[in-house]
From TrEMBL:
Organism name: Rubus argutus
Known catalytic reactions: an aldehyde + NAD(+) + H2O = a carboxylate + NADH + 2 H(+)
Pfam families according to UniProt: Aldedh
Residue ranges of coiled coil: none
Keywords tagged on the record: NAD, Oxidoreductase
Domain Aldehyde dehydrogenase: start-end pairs: 14-447
Family: Belongs to the aldehyde dehydrogenase family.
InterPro entries membership: Ald_DH/histidinol_DH (IPR016161), Ald_DH_C (IPR016163), Ald_DH_N (IPR016162), Aldehyde_DH_dom (IPR015590), Aldehyde_DH_NAD(P) (IPR012394)
Molecular-function annotations in GO: aldehyde dehydrogenase (NAD+) activity
Highest rank taxon of the organism: Eukaryota
PANTHER family membership: ALDEHYDE DEHYDROGENASE (PTHR43570), ALDEHYDE DEHYDROGENASE TYPE III, ISOFORM Q (PTHR43570:SF16)
Protein name (record): Aldehyde dehydrogenase
Active site (record annotation): E224, C259
Length: 490
């Protein structure tokens, strides 16, 4: 029978084990197996099978970790990953094909192309709020690009983490795809290693730690962070549709625990009470008069996040601003959808990303003032505008900097695979989804092909005035100048 010391020694994943694992993966990558279309396609097919054959287990794990409704689990996690796999399989050959590039007269005769090659061995550190999708969606891109991959799921979603470790261990090629479970110690051991790229989804505080670790090895990073995603609401709109779309983007996305969920609303003083009434009516319609009992709302992930959110609500300058909701159930880690009106800008709830079911409404004199208010803070991961005014739409797109913008809806840009998904500034760097996932984990290698004919002496010593004149004409692109230089005409 193993002693307690032997048991601890067996389960510890430290820097030495991390280093050995990376070496094994580098050897596998070095063999060239992950570069073939056949290997990439087979692994993507297996990921798709995970979604098909284990749907019930995935839904149960998400329910265990977050009380996530089955509808959200399927649509926002399983369905989106399945679509990602299908798209990659359908487009993989075209993505892998070298892109033809034009050459210039200075290299004539020649041809050129851009070859997408895998980076090598990549690390993916995922988040707890969408623990299935945000773990495997980057893996799809990394495998499609031909890399060996290590996935570190979030320890804050333990049921999903355990399931991912088991399923990927059963389905995937373990010589090139690994899952490492654990918390800070395991993540630290992984970050001490040299990777060819690190993809991290989470908050800015940890993002800075990841980036600092990566800098030691000059490792490129893909950081998917967050921020305070604003919703600007103009008057003269279909208020019922707008309210429904705000609600489903906020509380219908993991009860506000999503990086692209609306963080706060900006609207005029006159329109705010009308908007509040519309939101109240639709919230009652969606979640009933006792939303704490609703099976269509996820719970807060853990007691620490529950305490953080209650601290935001209980601040003196905020507690009196609640105009709807505010009910809590600490035993089940539930907070009802909560709307707050005229919250001061210097309050805690307006200084940090909320990441929960609280929705402050900030009022301005005119809608255009909202854009200046947004731009005065850190650039958000997403920003939303509801209006029928074309000039306002154009001004919003032109003046507001964010990872992504949506007009007259929320969060749906995430479901458009032809669009890049990523942040800007403190909301992240780099982007993925669809072909952008393939490119995120690829190096664009420039290749020029030449034969031995057409070898011009102009590039070789001795350097003469005539050769210099010809080179100047070539660089300038002047046909007449080239002719004059060839014939030695001044």
């Amino acid at each position: 029978m193993a002693t307690a010391t032997e048991e601890v020694r067996r389960v510890v994943f430290d820097s030495r084990e991390a280093s050995a694992m990376v070496e094994e993966l580098r050897a596998s990558f070095g063999s060239g197996k992950t570069r073939s279309y056949e290997w990439r396609a087979s692994q993507l097919n297996k990921l798709e099978k995970v979604t098909e054959y284990h749907e019930a287990e995935i839904i149960e794990a998400l329910r265990s970790d977050l009380s996530k409704p089955e509808f959200e689990s399927f649509v926002q996690e399983i369905g989106m990953l399945k679509s990602s796999c299908k798209l990659a399989l359908r487009q993989l050959k075209s993505w892998m094909k070298p892109e033809k590039a034009k050459t210039s007269i200075t290299t004539f005769p020649s041809s050129a192309e851009i070859v997408s090659e895998p980076l090598g061995v990549v690390l993916i550190i995922s988040a707890w709020n969408y623990p299935f999708l945000l773990s495997l969606d980057p893996v799809v891109g990394a495998i499609a690009a031909g890399n060996a991959v290590v996935l570190k799921p979030s320890e804050l979603a333990p049921a999903t983490s355990k399931l991912l470790a088991r399923l990927l261990g059963e389905y995937m090629d373990s010589s090139s795809v690994r899952v490492i479970e654990g918390g800070v110690a395991e993540t630290t051991a992984l970050l001490e290693q040299k990777w060819d790229k690190i993809c991290y989804t989470g908050n800015g505080r940890v993002g800075r730690i990841v980036m600092a670790s990566a800098a030691k090895h000059l490792t490129p990073v893909l950081l998917e962070l967050g921020g305070k995603c604003p919703v600007v609401v103009d008057s003269g709109i279909n208020l019922q549709v707008a309210s429904r779309r705000i609600i489903v983007g906020k509380w219908g996305c993991n009860n506000g625990q999503a990086c692209i969920s609306p963080d706060h609303i900006l609207t005029t003083k006159d329109f705010a009470p009308i908007l509040v009434d519309a939101l109240k009516q639709e919230l009652d319609s969606f979640y009933g008069k006792n939303p704490l009992q609703s099976k269509d709302l996820s719970r807060i992930v853990n007691s620490n996040h529950y305490a953080r959110l209650t601290k935001l609500l209980d601040e003196d300058k905020v507690s009196g601003k609640i105009v709807h909701g505010g009910e809590r159930d600490i035993s089940n880690l539930r907070i009802a959808p909560t709307i707050l009106l005229d919250v001061p800008q210097d309050s805690l709830i307006m200084q940090e990303e909320i990441f929960g079911p609280l929705l402050p409404i900030v009022t301005v004199d005119k809608v255009e003032d909202s854009f200046d208010l947004i731009n005065s803070g850190s650039k958000p991961l997403a920003a939303y505008l509801f209006t029928n005014d074309k000039k306002l739409k154009d001004q919003f797109v032109r003046s507001v900097s964010a990872g992504g913008l949506v007009i007259n809806d929320t969060t749906i840009h995430l479901a458009v695979p032809s669009l890049p998904f990523g942040g800007v500034g403190e909301s992240g760097m780099g982007a993925y989804h669809g072909k952008f996932s393939f490119e995120a984990f690829s190096h664009k290698k420039a290749v020029v092909y030449r034969g031995f004919s057409g070898d011009a002496s102009v590039r070789y010593p001795p350097y003469t005035k005539g050769k210099l004149s010809l080179l100047k004409a070539l660089v300038g692109g002047s046909i007449l100048g080239i002719i004059r230089a060839l014939f030695g005409w001044s």
